[in-house]
Specification:
The chain is mainly α. It is built from 15 helices and two strands. Helix content is about 65%, strand content about 5%. Bound molecules: zinc ion.
Length: about 290
Amino acid sequence: MRFSFLVKLTTVIILLGLGSWGFLAHKTIHQIAIYSLPKKLQGFFFKNVDYMVYNSVRPDVRRKDDPSEATKHFIDIDAPIFGENSIETMPQTWDDAAKKYTADTLRKYGTVPWEIMKLQAKLTNAFRNKLKDSILFYSADLGHYIADAHVPLHTTINYDGQLTNQRGLHSLWESTVPEMNIDNYNLYQAHKAKYIKNPLAEIWVRIKESKVMLNKVLADEIAASEGFTDDKKFKRSERFGAMRKNYSGEFAKAYAEKLGTTVNERMLEASKTVQFLNFRPLQNHHRLVLN
Ligand SMILES: [Zn+2]
């Protein structure tokens, strides 16, 4: 029942075109997270689901006006400055990492794990002070950065495949593929909310998973390219007098096939983490907002 409502709502979002296609995954992840909260805690977010879904993409919109925004969405963990095997050796806390590499270096290569922690603290504070507007504001933002941490191409200096002759891979993986296949995705969250003792450690586990997945994201593009001539693989268009080369629809289909269910699974994993990290303050303080 709840599931079919979710599917319908997703369809409505697609039809109304609230935000660009590229925003579909963010909106869906927020939606799934809210629908999968335990019933007795769900009410507040359920009532505000439209706000949450609409604002799930606000941090991306903010990038246009705020130059400090961009690096909050990723962490290029494989930047040479971090050394070999940095996914294991990077200190997890901001203070320790900044001591090792300087705050400026971290800001250059991305701060998503620490942005999440900052927002988690703000959200908890908003709950404590019964500030409903702030709860919604921080919760929508928090979910966005958590979702971003689940994207493999948000963990690498090769973020658009530009270093491996795969430019355009970023939006192909996180936008085109889910947009094409969302109707066939499983949007049911089977994981029940649980209390996360150490949110920072949890986020680092997700970032490590994203980094591991990166190999497949890149390798599947190469595998899908087999049998594609350059003309078939790309479509060319002119914009502001410059020629642009983008992956063709036909190639996107072949790539999606190679990826199998991985994008769908990652979206569900992201919604699970969004749910878990919202559940923490919600469980502690829900009486305050529900009363
Ligand atoms: Zn983002």
